[in-house]
Design goal:
It contains ten helices and 13 strands. With 329 residues, it is an alpha/beta fold. The strands form two sheets. Strands 1, 2, 3, 4, 5, 6, 7 and 8 form an eight-stranded mixed sheet that branches. Strands 9, 10, 11, 12 and 13 form a five-stranded antiparallel sheet that branches. It binds S-adenosylmethionine.
């Protein structure tokens, strides 16, 4: 499993870029960018080198952690997957590219694209001294136009990107992303109901085109969750000093909520059930909410069944479980 924390090379590159920048200025910029996001805006407010750096220091650790958690889930389902090429759509500062490079040592070709020039410049600077990412190519342009010209890749990733485009644009981009996917498409978004709805729309669209879900779902059928419930996960990550300063944070960690889907052309050989929430542990039993091939299951491990109870206590939100079908309550 790849660590959810930024690799040392990237941390050092970010720290190096921060030297000479005022941290309180960066904190102000990061706060205003995040206020825009909370108000439904997008990364269009990132216009200067200082904005790009503030955004990267404040948000890259969390989006990196979410992409890494999603890639770890994919690797668990597809342990033999060894992509050689990556296409990172709406790559911003290069977050998903760094995460994929860590997760897959097989990757050799990294193609990134984004409309934002200052984020593109920052990404190239962050990767400049990296031995792993020294040969990235980064196209500046609107996603559909740039993607139409791009070569297909084994792994295509869009991380925290589709939330920035309208529904019609998402449908068109989804089709194009799939056309450029040789093996696997991974889409990661914030863990909100609205982002989940976008992921489900993309999932439905691509299943209709013949795609299969590798993760998180253990099936290609309809999502069994009903509003106000929605499928999302949480990844803990450590905050560096700079990260804490720029976010004006008091604790040295944060939990990033995210939703994701990994879609493949060929069905995975084995798709175990997925744990959809932290297990509910009481003195009497452990109840685990599972998405299974047959729908939603609340699997109960009663305390009187000591082995099952101990086993169920070890379960974690987001992990897979092979036992859900046998111990349903
Ligand atoms: C929230 S940032 C995420 C950046 C990066 N993928 C990450 O996970 O940290 C969204 C990125 O998508 C890019 N983007 C949004 N709409 C786009 C479009 N239509 N064409 C190209 N890039 C776009 C933005 O410029 C921005 O860099």
């Amino acid at each position: 499993m790849t660590s959810p924390d930024l690799p040392a090379e990237l941390k050092a590159a970010l720290d190096g870029k921060l030297r000479g920048f005022s941290r309180s200025d960066a904190a102000g910029r990061a706060a205003s960018i995040s206020k825009t996001y909370r108000g439904g805006g997008n990364s269009g407010t990132i216009r200067t080198e200082a904005d790009a750096l503030a955004y990267a220091v404040a948000r890259m650790p969390a989006t990196y952690a979410a992409v890494t958690a999603s890639l770890n889930a994919l690797v668990e389902i597809r342990p033999d997957f060894a992509p050689k090429s990556l296409l990172d759509i709406g790559a911003g500062p290069g977050t998903a590219t760094w995460a994929a490079a860590e997760a897959f040592s097989s990757l050799q070709h990294f193609a990134l694209l984004d409309a934002n020039d200052v984020l593109r410049t920052l990404a190239l600077e962050l990767a400049r001294d990296s031995t792993r990412l020294s040969n990235i190519s980064y196209e500046r342009g609107e996603a559909r136009t740039a993607l139409a010209k791009a070569d297909a890749a084994d792994l295509v990733v869009a991380s925290y990107m589709i939330g920035e485009i309208g529904d019609a644009e998402q449908r068109a981009l989804t089709e194009l992303m799939w056309a450029k996917t040789r093996d696997t498409l991974l889409v990661v978004e914030p863990g909100t109901p609205a982002s989940y709805a976008r992921i489900i729309a993309l999932r439905d669209q691509l299943i209709a085109l013949g795609a299969h879900v590798a993760a998180p779902c253990p099936h290609d059928g309809q999502c069994p969750l009903q509003p106000p419930d929605w499928c999302h996960f949480s990844q803990r990550l450590q905050r560096s000093r700079a990260h804490m300063q720029v976010k004006a944070a008091e604790v040295p960690f944060e939990d990033e909520r995210f939703s994701y889907v990994a879609l493949t052309h060929a069905p995975a050989a084995h798709r175990p059930s997925r744990i959809l929430a932290p297990p509910d542990v009481t003195k009497a039993a452990v109840v685990t909410k599972l998405c299974t091939a047959d729908g939603l299951v609340r699997a109960t491990a009663p305390r009187r069944d000591k082995a099952a109870y101990i086993q169920a206590r070890k379960r974690r939100w987001g992990e897979t479980s092979d036992s859900g079908e046998t111990d349903r309550g």
